[in-house]
Design a protein that fits this description.
alpha+beta, six-stranded antiparallel beta barrel
Amino acid sequence: MTRLNNLDSELAQELGDFPEDDLDIVFTPKECRTLQPSMPEDGAELDSHVRDCVQTYVREWLIVNRKNQGNSDTCSLKNKGSRKDFHKTLQKQTFESETLDSGDANFQAGPRHVPALPEEASRTTLTSSDFDLRSLQPDPRLENLLRHLSPEEFERQNEEARRTNRHAELLALYPAVDEEDAVEIRPVPDRPKEHLGNRILVKLQTLKFDIEIEPLFACIALYDIKERKKISENFHCDLNPDSLRGFLRSHTPSIDLSTQARSAVFSVTYPSSDIYLVLKIEKVLQQGEIGDCAEPYMVLKESETGKTKEKIEKLKAQAESFCQRLGKYRMPFAWIPVALTSFFNLSTLEREIPEAEGLNGRSTSDKRATLLQARRFSERSLSSEDSYSVSNFKTTSLTLNTFFKQEGDRLSDEDLFKFLADFKRSSSLQRRIKTLPGTLKLEISAAPESLGYCLTPELLPVKPFPENRNRPHKEILEFPIREVYVPHTIYRNLLYVYPQRLNFANRPGSARNITIKIQFMCGEDPSCAMPVIFGKSSGPEFVQEIYTAITYHNKSPDFYEEVKIKLPAKLTEKHHLLFTFYHISCQPKQGASVETLLGYSWLPILLNDRLQTGHYCLPVALDKLPFHYSIHSPEKVPSQTPPVKWVEGHKGVFNVEVQAVSSVHTQDNHLEKFFTLCHCLESQVTFPIRLMDQKITEAALEHELKLSIICLNSSRLEPLVLFLHLVLDKLFQLAVQPMVIAGQTANFSQFAFESVVAIVNSLHNSKDLSKDLHGRNCLLASYVYYVFRLPDPQREVVKPGAGSSAISTESRYYTFGRTSAVSVGSKLLQSRVISCSNPDITVTQTATDEEVKNIMSSKPMDHSSSRMSFYVEGANDMPSVCANSRPSNKKHFHEELALQMVVSTGMVRETVFKYAWFFFELLIKSMAQYVHNIEKQDNPRRSRFSDRFKDDITTIVSVVTSEIAALLVKQKESEQAEKINISLAFFLYDLLSLMDRGFVFNLIKHYCNQLSNKLNSLSTLISMRLEFLRILCSHEHYLNLNLFFMTSASAPASPSPSLSSQNSSSCSSFQDQKIAGMFDLSAEYRQQHFLTGLLFTELAAALDADGEGISKVQRKAVSAILSLLSSHDLDPRCSKKEVKIKIAALYLPLVGIILDSLPQLHDFTIADARSGKGRTGNPEEEQESPGAINQNVALAIAGNQFNLRSSGISLVSMAYRQSATLGPDTTRNLLICFLWIMKNADQNLIQKWIADLPSMQLNRILDLLFICVSCFEYKGKQSSDKVSTQALQKSRDVKARLEEALLRGEGARGEMMKRCRIPAGNDRSVGLNENLRWRKEQTHWRQANERQDKSKAELDQEALISGNLATEANLIILDMQENIIQASFAAECRDNLLGGVLKVLVNSLGCDQSTTYLTHCFATLRALIAKFGDFLFEEEVEQCADLCQRVLHHCSSSIDTTRTQACATLYFLMRYSFSSTSNFARVKMQVTMSLASLVGKSPEFNEEFLRRSLRTILAYAEEDADMQATPFPIQVEELLCNLNSILSDTVKMREFQEDPEMLMDLMYRIAKGYQTSPDLRLTWLQNMAEKHTKRKCYTEAAMCLVHAAALVAEYLSMLEDRNYLPVGSVSFQNISSNVLEESAVSDDVLSPDEDGICSGRYFSESGLVGLLEQAAELFSTGGLYETVNEVYKIVIPILEAHRDFRKLTLTHSKLQKAFDSVINKGQKRMFGTYFRVGFYGSKFGDLDEQEFVYKEPAITKLPEISHRLEGFYGQCFGEDAVEVIKDSAPVDKRKLDPNKAYIQITFVEPYFDEYEMKDRVTYFEKNFNLCRFMYTTPFTMDGRPRGDLSEQYKRNTILTTMHAFPYIKTRINVIQKEEFILTPIEVAIEDMQKKTQELTAATNQEPPDAKMLQMVLQGSVGATVNQGPLEVAQVFLSEIPADPKLYRHHNKLRLCFKEFIMRCGEAVEKNKRLITADQREYQQELRKNYGKLKENLRPMIERKIPELYKPVVKVHSTRESFRNHSFRKYDAQTSSQST
């Protein structure tokens, strides 16, 4: 570390080699809303408190910045800006998947004919639509394809092409890391600003009555009726026409513009539906009651004619005379309420809540609580963004036509609230109050941010203030209903006086029309009235007096006046309010004056130097004011001569309320006392001083001040917050300012510190104050950031003692030495000593580094006892002290603060560390200012701060660390620990810029060690250290701190880097060993690159660990590194290539870590289970369906036993991996880091490294690349959300989120989860700091609407970026593969690497790729084929097959360039395979098979383009001059014709895409057509299996695989006879009787030795095992567990023969599972439901008159299948042309409409003969291997389906199908149909047997089910059962039948009844035992009914038919067993007659 500063390498310079001090101390002026800041009036001499306040409000902010900060900040706004337009620089990448969308939209639109299928599926008929290839035009060819090039040249050209046009910053394309982890973002606190609530603008437009006779005056205010509080000051407004205003000219000396406002801005902090705007109207006083004066308004209307006009003129004249005489007096007249419910509508509030969090910058999520329940006030709802509850109402214009007349005796606010409450209830007061007709028009809207020409409540102009001014708008001051916690930031000093009630009832003399003149006096002389009262409308701005409105003839009037006074800044004893009471005579009397004096009262403004506010009841003096009255309050006037006369003998008769809104008067005793005492210290005062009602002498000053400091925290929270800035400033001043009081040194620093701690604690604990995402109280954060500055170095303050005037010259004073600190007590001392021997404070004697030695080893005991915080100053220096005090002997704030933190104890200490962030930020800011002030920039960092201070810092860090550990051990406190941990990290982060870095690194090291020693839970430990390191690494000089320029690829650093070794790069052999070392996390690396080393160590530990909660930690670790890399990519300082190479070298060890974690990565190849296009990754589906049938599963199951290499198996090197430990997101983030390093590192270095790697490692790299390919596959536009890893990796934190959503953030991780996420990147955010609470798209339940939330442009832009990311990522992978090929083939170790490389390439071809990538990829492939052709065709057979398939797929691409490349590659492949070793036969076979499987699998496959490609290949063959002499061109042509015919099958399949059954039939036939070509048949069987799996028909899919396995078995048994192998398809009979079809392959058709035949991977023992295991999985998914056993019976012998015990274990565990399932789910399983479907009508083509049995999923109802088929065929033939036949009776074709298609659907049940039932015992056996089904049709002889019992017949129909279900299709043809008819008596016998069975079952059920039993009983013996047993008996048994043929049936029915009645008896008995007491009656009823039934049946049951009991003659029966009893087969004729 020592040489850190002198390593001057150019690159380090590039990155701004540690700029020595990049500190920037900025003074930014406060932004002021008004043109001039609000200041006290000029010329007033201010007392010190007011001066301090004003000073605090106007001085600038002091902000400490670091110049480069933000350069590397991952989420800094800068990067947002750069990302904003970033997408414009990108090229659009073309993806096949997106070109298809548009092209195929019109496919299959109109009604179309369902084409017929030929009967016999022979090859010839199917491809009858053969298409002549030569008729097509070939695509353009690649011109230089056939030129001869050396492989090296080929590779070089490819590389050049690849390197051009690449995107430089990979991570700029990557979606930003999840902000949940972005702890390094420290939100900049909001600037303190004046609080404004929700602002509404109210404009008064018209106010007039039906007659206009006199001027009227309006005044508006807001009232909250629930809180019963007036919530705004008054706004006075004058809407009179000029003519009427003229009446008052004599009374208005001047009219100021500010009084002419007609619009007001009201502010509402707590909107609610109870807020009313009340407009009161006054008029000039005139004679008469209000009612009399209002009379004309009620009866007269303005009119042109006659009497009315005269009356009005008269009234007008009268009014004018009153105005001249009484113009300055008013009387109440009318009022009108306006409900603001619709504006503060609660429903809008609630609706707004979800979005509110976005609007409101610092949301804490209890928003809803704030608004709705408690509506508690907190800073949150203050920010101006918060106006959401109002912002959503549109401008509303209101017109109101009814005014309420004022009632003279009900003018008080109390009365008003009663009226409003009534009004709210019924919205009409008409019944009780008279109304006046009139018009009031007003417009209410949300106030815009800036209104031109607006005045504050103090009448200061607000910016912007335009030149041309009309009427102003006025801001109206709000009186919030609850506390507002926003510190004052402007000077405001207003007083409001509310006279309320006067009681002159007992005053002698005439006092009726009473008014009060109110004045604010500064002395007793009448001329001392001050013009500080705000005027009303249309008058002067300020007046000296105001008169209250008069109620006519009322001796005890109520008043509603509000007098607003601008308080002088300096108040004295003389200031007082003077009230003068007058009687006003309304009628002019000769010689009498208008006013008659009634009395006086007054109120001193100050009491004991404090502003008086509150409610007063004052006495009134009658004649004159007492002498010197104003010093006393009226109640306490001393007695005088002559005595003063009082109304009612000095009783209080006048009620008045005074309230202040002031930012200088605290109105809180504790604060008042504290400020007063502080000022005593600061300015010269004379003792004793008076404080409240106590006198304080100088001696008591220190004690009182300490008390007041301690009590500060007892003050109410609101005033404390309001004056927070000043209080903290003062406390910090006290902490460092030396005091001498009365000759004694006073030390307040400890008290001041403890008080600060207490305040910090209470602010954090208050529920009403908001916190930011790191849990920092917003008010304190703003204070530190903007307001705090070092306390002024004030001169030493010495208060001379009473006697001593001289001061000794050497007055040195010390703040307490440790030992003598009596006041603080010895506890502190002990704690200090203890803390020094505290084991946590490591004292390393052996620190290697010199400097560290100095820091760490100073023995703490030395100054444990004698440390002082001291200030030594000679008194004789005093004059110069201020100018330039010697720094050595002054207390420095940072030192004092650190000291106090160290020595604090008990609760104080606990709080300090709990809210350490505040003290840390104070330390940092004060240190920064200190460094700035002393201009020590030149000094080395090491000596900037004293050793003692460094010791304190070490101690603090150590103590905080142990505090964190202690909290983590208590599980509950982990959230707290997390916050402290983060604040500690930020502290060290800041220290890196201020202190010596070696010192800080040591602190970091101790932190890490200390935590490891204390914590046993690994995941917590790593998590803590990670967040800690993540913050440190976000430092802007992170790269320099890590000495990144020492990692040089050319010279691996030696352990002690000296410049010489740095520059010597001669030792090259030494380097080769070193290169591999560069990729490992060595001790040496960790020493040199300290922070990165630590971070990598944590990552490695996290990846190794396992245990609870570890996945979260892994995510954190990876995202920390990713965010670092992103920051380099976004840092303009790092854009040069050389710098990037150096930086990448710093991260090389990460490669090693990633390779080691390979087995834990999430395997995207399996998760995505390539299912063609629709990979949206829906987690639900993902989990239900076992991965689509692809080789992955087969091989993963088959394991790697038989050494199969395959494209499907995801990662060869980890065959047995059971589960992925890293989540998809984490894996993806880790892989992008890997790609970043590979992209930016020095390519030569990478090649050297690869060349030295053992092949095992190289294979791992290939495996890693394989995963990368699938991971960065382009996901398409529609789902380019965050990362489409399974639509938001469902499990992650959904629980936490839900919990949080429910508890609104009081959830498990509470505050920490309340992360304001700044969505960096992706430009989702509209504004820059729209800190959305939890990203919408991260909440699972918002997923559905997510699509519509984004505009098309946004989606396009995201798609553009993700397309570029996919391309770039794949190109990096391609570069890597080229590196591997070149490096390893140079070293000749290509044994199995080529296969690996090919595997990755093939995988990448299988993903959705851009044309850019494909071009390069195909080029690489061609180079490979050219270079290693032979090897490829011989060794890598399987890879070759896959390759063929992928290339063919791209040959069918709709994009020309892709097609051109693919054709060229395919032709190249054929050509090389022919010329190399004549392997062409095999390639031909592979291509043919590939096409077959392609056709089967891919639905959006385009045969037109593929044909064109085939034509192009043909063209290549014809143009290839070198080959013309060989048979090659002819063979190519043959192959192409064959491919063409396969294509024609596809065309057919296309047509049945929508009809799954038909499609399956077709595929079935195609497969049958390939009977002679096993490879292709197998391929088609697999295609069918895929299709079935997609439709969730798992059993059928499994059957397809069983058939495929049988095929393989046939082939294997031909090849060699091994006794453990199955003997062909016969062995599979137990699985399915249908398998025998596969044995058709006989020796003459097929000789397995022929080249290219049966070469597929499945024709081997392992292939067989793979197929069967896959089948078993599917059977298990389909619930056929019994079959699983049969399948494994074939597998187990093979596994035994291979001695594969691991596999056997697995197999047996699966068998165990299967049998368990049989036991547990036996009867509960749902097998299929079967329907007979008949098609009738020529429209069906060859389906006409065909009958099928369809197998549908379990519990499919008839309407469902009917709806499906009707819908499908309706689409084909048109809806009107399809009809479903509702019954199941035989269909008569002649009666059908030939133009229609008829479908008949009947539910059928499996049918078994009696002898079969003996074998089919279990539920499964009754549902498996079914080929006979039965359905029943009821009918009567006359054609109706149902009739009476005696005529009800039944037809049972039995169908036999061609194959047994389950089969490889879901519908099978019916090949035979039999019918039986039951006569009515046989039907009755069947019914009775069924009833008896039900009864028996219900009776014997275990455990008994009373409900069930009662149900069955009710149906059997219930009295009113229609067609019940009794009726059946009466119909069939009452008579002996005439026809002897029916004797047997009669007898059988009789016996049935006999059994039935017996069972009924049993059931009734059983029921008796089951019933509860309340059912006794019911039981008796049942018994009675049973008795009745038995009685009624007895005669019929006992009557026997005598003939039947004669001796029996042997009858000769020819009938089959199962028709013995009841079925009678009719001839066809009889049946046709009967219908």
